[in-house]
Amino acid sequence: MQKIKKIFGLTLFNPATLKLLMNLIFRRKLSSAEAADYWNRLKSSNNPFFDFIAQEMSGSLGLYYSEERARENHLYYIHSARLKAVKVLLPPAKRILDIGGANSPLYDMGYPYEFDYMCMLDLPIDERHKEFKKEWQRGKGKVEVRYSNMTDLSFFSDNSFDLIWMGQVIEHITQAEAKQTLKEVFRVLAKGGRLILDTPNRAMTILHVKSEGSDSFIHPDHKHEYTANELERLIQGEGFQISSRLGICELPLTKRTNSFHYKDFVLGATWTSDIENSYILYYDCVK
Questions:
Q1: Is 155 exposed, middle or buried (0-12, 13-18, 19+ CB in 10 A)?
Q2: Which residue, 125, 126, 122, is CA-closest to 143?
Q3: Is the model's pLDDT at 43 over the cut of 60?
Q4: 35 pLDDT exceeds 80?
Q5: Statement: residue 24 has pLDDT above 90
Q6: d(CA 86, CA 189)
Q7: Helices within the chain (DSSP H only)
Q8: Could you tell me which of 159, 156, 151, 173 has the C-alpha nearest to residue 225?
Q9: Partner residues linked to 117 by β-bridges
Q10: What are phi and psi of 221, to 5 degrees?
Q11: Same-domain check for residues 16 and 80
């Protein structure tokens, strides 16, 4: 029970708080008898808390989040976690370069701060994968769209931006192109400026695709998916200092079993310091 208290930051964890938690997980109001039954079985269970919940979610009480339901909705869970990260983790900045952002711009993901200028850099619409042809044209400051390959930032002068965001883009280019892109990003970023990027974690996506009978990448447009160590070597090799590293969408059951579980997108933390066992790698880097 002490482990449960620590997980939820509660000074008291009792049948009432467990009932409230189960109501949220199961999306229905449990009866007092059901809540008491959960409490008694949890106390007598030898499983860690999250394993106990996973077992209950696969049980016979008509629970809302089955493995199949989590599988159907996992892209929504991933997107929601990324939106929360943008709202909470990204810093304020006045001049922002959003690389690959014309389809899903930073400001439309909930970036909460006013800015003076944001440039969204992306391929022309007819050169993008069919899933990434949508564009947005509004923001909290002056917004410009430039069409170019991300490896070529020659139209920007040195030290042009306070913040450069690469949200789920580095996996769409080759490793050689990624090295060239980061070299250019370092040049156009002001001293003390921030490069923030996120990308799928290959250590987990390989388990994901294998669970679906494949050994490819999770999207047909991906050119390379990185492990944490691999991406860190690339980032630091181009001169950046990594100020923080987080995993988005923790995968606790997948970690324990070395087998992919979709219900992790429900059970796992939105972000965690356990980056190697999360679905998405997130790095905050400083020039």
A1: exposed
A2: 122
A3: yes
A4: no
A5: no
A6: 19
A7: 2-8, 15-26, 32-44, 49-57, 67-89, 175-188, 202-211, 228-237, 252-257, 264-267
A8: 173
A9: 95, 142
A10: -90, -5
A11: no
DSSP state of 140: S
d(CA 220, CA 264): 23
Residues 141, 282, 235, 230: is their CA dihedral positive or negative? negative
Q: Residues 165, 218: one domain?
A: yes
> What gap in Å lies between CA 161 and CA 149, rounded to an integer?
18
* Helix, strand or coil, per DSSP, at residue 83: helix
CA distance 287 to 279: 26
User: Distance between CA 210 and CA 221 in Å, rounded?
Assistant: 18
* 50 plus 171 within the same structural domain: no
For the domain that residue 223 is a member of, what is the CATH number?
3.40.50.150
The distance between the two most distant Cα atoms of the chain, rounded to a whole number of Å, is 67
Residues 224 and 259 in one domain: yes
Question: Where does residue 113 rank: exposed (0-12), middle (13-18), buried (19+ CB within 10 A)?
Answer: middle
Return d(Cα 91, Cα 89) in angstroms, integer. 6
- Please check the confidence at residue 3 and state whether its pLDDT lies above 50: no
Segment among 79-93, 120-134, 195-209 with least mean pLDDT: 120-134
In 3D, which of 44, 43, 35 has the Cα closest to residue 16?
35
Residues 76, 52 share a domain: no
Domain boundary among 63, 87, 116: 63
Of 57, 42, 41, 35, nearest to 7 by C-alpha is 42
Supply the pLDDT for residue 239. Answer: 97
Q: Give how many domains the chain has, as a whole number.
A: 2
**Which residues span the domain enclosing 152?**
68-286
pLDDT of 148:
81
